[in-house]
Specification:
With 281 residues, the chain is α/β, with parallel strands linked by helices. The protein folds into two domains: 2-182, NADP-dependent oxidoreductase domain (TIM Barrel, Alpha-Beta Barrel); 197-279, no CATH class. It has helices at residues 2-11, 28-43, 57-64, 86-94, 115-126, 130-139, 159-167, 175-182, 197-208, 242-249, 252-262, 271-279, and strands at 16-21, 47-53, 74-77, 98-101, 144-145, 215-225, 228-235. Strand 6 (215-225) and strand 7 (228-235) form a beta hairpin. The two termini are 35 Å apart.
């Protein structure tokens, strides 16, 4: 509640329309305790709507099973071309949780095979930009898109981009075009946010064996090394060497280390979902 009140004070506001927390906590009990504070905030008129960020299907199901007094109304997560968590979208739709996407263009900064060819073909067919094609894909799944242009010191710099972003609502992709972009998300994927302890432990293992990682540029995280807590850049997202990182993780000499760190996790994750997340692709 102190955090909520402090952020309202920074905004010079008495309430917010939507209150989210960034990712699940270390334990289900801690996650529930945060949600209880959110429910109090809503009852006190400090928030009109409540939601979560970066939850996978397991996280949502666990929180819903705790007996909520207020519904989860929004799931904000990293949805985009090559980054679709189809499992969580199906679950959210079944439980009337509206999905919202951030950083939907991040795969443009990676070496994801086939991305520009597939997106470029869709863009050319509709005479739109690749950015608009990528946003149109996310919108096709009824996911609200947050524009990637953000200049709080000089908002006018984003004006032209916002016009293009809004024009995306006029773009309707065919079933074949959607399927062509679906194929860019290989296997099963879960939310690509890599701030959880499990994901950063996977990152640490990949770093230790020399796999090329991408710094996501959004702050720092901390790893436990024995009894010591050390600070590191937060890795994941937009790795220009992402496919090389995946190949490195699959090398026979690295397989045991990667399996130990990235393949034995709970919370709805597996090596299949955790390694791409840690590699930032």
């Amino acid at each position: 509640m102190e955090y909520i009140d402090g952020e309202l004070a920074q905004l010079n506001a008495t309430h917010v329309d939507l209150l989210l927390f960034h990712h699940r906590c270390r334990t289900p009990a801690e996650t529930v305790s945060v949600w209880r504070a959110f429910e109090i905030a809503k009852r006190l008129g400090k928030a009109k709507h409540l939601g979560v960020s970066n939850f996978n299907r397991h996280d949502l199901a666990t929180l819903l099973a705790s007996g909520l007094e207020e519904p989860i109304e929004v799931l904000e997560a990293h949805f985009g071309v090559g980054l679709m968590d189809f499992e969580v979208l199906e679950f959210a739709n079944a439980h009337r949780i509206h999905p919202v996407a951030f950083a939907s263009l991040s795969q443009r900064g990676t070496d994801l095979t086939g991305l520009h060819a597939a997106v470029g073909a869709v863009a050319a067919a509709h005479a739109i930009s690749e950015v608009q094609a990528m946003y149109a894909y996310v919108l096709a799944y009824n996911v609200t898109v947050i524009s990637s242009c953000f200049h709080p010191e000089n908002p006018s710099r984003c004006a032209a981009y916002y016009v293009q972003d809004l024009a995306t609502f006029d773009v309707v992709l065919s079933a074949d075009e959607i399927a062509s972009l679906d194929r860019l998300t290989p296997g099963k994927r879960t939310c690509t946010d890599c701030y959880t302890d499990e994901c950063q432990a996977c990152v640490a293992a990949l770093h230790a064996v020399g796999c090329p990682l991408g710094v996501n540029g959004w702050g720092h995280t901390w790893w436990h090394v024995g009894d010591n807590l050390t600070e590191h850049p937060a890795w994941g997202r937009s790795n220009r060497n992402g496919t090389h990182c995946l190949a490195c993780a699959a090398l026979p000499q690295n397989e045991h280390v990667v399996l130990q760190a990235c393949g034995r996790v709970d919370g709805g994750e597996s090596r299949e979902t955790m390694v791409p997340k840690a590699c930032g692709i």
